[in-house]
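Memo to structure team: turn this sequence into structure tokens by end of day. - J.P.
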Amino acid sequence: MPSQDKPRVSTSTGPPFTELLAYLVIGVFFGIVLIKSEVVSWFRIQEMFRFQAFHMYGVLGSGVATSALVVWLAKTMKSRSLTGEPIRISPKAWGPGARWRYPLGGVLFGVGWGLAGTCPGPIYALVGHGTGGAVVVLLAALLGARLYAAVGHRLPH
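Reply from structure team:
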């Protein structure tokens, strides 16, 4: 009698522990780099917004240039993901309201960045570094994400 193989059903609810550990190690390393390079320093951010120093513009500009190079290489070399799937970068869909949505979103982001002294990326690094005020910023960011989850479907996208 031929064996009837049942389809395997994964009981895993997420990525394996080793993968999560790798993300944690990379995140901690990145946080240390952010702290040591002073890009999370409130004073450096204020210098940038007051056009008093090139430090932050150099860091941000090198990030944009590196990203552009990696995207260009991924497209021209027909790169594949670790699972073997082709990497596809879809063009930006502008949709209705885009003429105002992106500039207003950028201004809102910049005002929040200037007031809080940090952008959302390094909040965890600042909390890990022991910067007390970062806890307030983290809680506000989580509240804002929750608020967007509640009302985002009503916003023009």
